[in-house]
Sequence to fold (339 residues):
Amino acid sequence: MLSSRKIEILKAIVESFIASAEPVGSKTLMESFNLPYSSATIRNEMLELENLGYLEKTHTSSGRVPSTLGYRYYVEHLMVDRMEPSLEYALQEVFFDRQLNIEEVIKRSCDILAQMTNLTSMVLGPDASTQTLEHINLFPVDQNKAVAVFITNAGHTENRVFQFDEKISVEELAHFCAILNERLSGTTLDQVVAKLQLIKPILAQSITKYEAIFQAFFNAFIKFANTNFYLSGTNNVFNQPEFTDINKLKQLMSMFENSQIWKEIGSNQNNLRLEHGKHSSIAWLDDMAVVTSTFQLDDQESGQLMVVGPSRMEYDRVVALMEFLSSAIEKVYGKGDSS
Fold:
């Protein structure tokens, strides 16, 4: 158990490093935080905190920086969530805009998260392996255009506008749609594309211009199965000194392109993962932190908001933002008890 003096010094170091990205020395602590201890006492306490694993010494400075253990202790015991009224007002305006559907609201919230934190944010929607295709409605606009509505067992809908290069009759569109409903209803979203390929010969036998319709649906299903991942603020990593290393930056950019990585991070339970608040958790990977906040829409459908950045992030602000957003999503769009 840390003494009150060690706790006070650790808190000051974490907050100083988050704000400045500069290693913290005893002189900085005395001048910026008015700690009532001598420089020698502070140095001794910093050395003990380093030996205990809460601080690390850099190669380029005599100062110290928080370790993952130090950040974890700060978040678990010292942090107070901080939500600015102006930001809360901006987010409420998004949820009051009734012209937006839930997908648009969540994506806009993700954009605001990225803008306000200067970090990268993302949304992971319901897992495509747990939702099934319930029904397809097709509405012809003219002989070259149609609107398709895909509906899942969880009530999630997705609209797609099809533009055909050749004229397609209403009868052929209706017949095509009837075959898809008969053959694909009940198929999990991640298997729809593969199953569509299997029934292609059946479509070819009964529909003259099946190829044009098939390709439109094929592309739509690929997009539909992947609408559960949305990324915002990737360029924000360029503003973080931790990612000036080109190899580290390339690795992170590659990770951003793979939604499966983030799904695994969001669901993985390990010793470096800390639950915080009703919805949120923080995981540390090397010198990177991932804050995840889960929202529940009903018994079957849930999603996750994520913020990714250096371990040196404003946890109090980021976590407060994400707790607010998840609670608001559940309150406005959830079908169950959001209390």
User: Anything to note?
Assistant: The chain has three domains: 4-78, 85-127+229-333, 133-225.
